[in-house]
Design goal:
By secondary structure, the protein is of the alpha/beta class. The chain has one domain: Glutaredoxin (3-Layer(aba) Sandwich), CATH 3.40.30. The chain has helices at about 10-15, 30-45, 65-70, 95-100, and strands spanning about 5, 20-25, 55-60, 75-80, 85-90. The protein has a five-stranded mixed β-sheet with strand order 1-3-2-4-5. The protein starts with a strand and ends with a helix.
Length: about 100
Amino acid sequence: MSVLHLDSNNFEETIKSTDKPVLVDFWAEWCAPCRMFAPIFEKAAEKLDSAAIFAKVNVDESEALALKYSVMSIPTVIFFKNGAEVARRTGALSLGEIAEFLK
């Protein structure tokens, strides 16, 4: 499955309308660590798609979501289950760290 691109129009519905956990990467185009992390997140979405839904939120386009979830640094990955935040990590992660995050 490919990575979903979420914004304030589809974010809540996406994280609440699935039984699968949702892993959301909050990022921005100007962020060098975000650009470095992007291919790793994409690869995780391919390899771990049976375990979770992978999505991205551009903080410049969806400032309200970044504020609502208190995203202060990017990249920040937030793990949602049943529509609620259960964990978060700030900074670029490895594929192994993402897999561990989902356990």
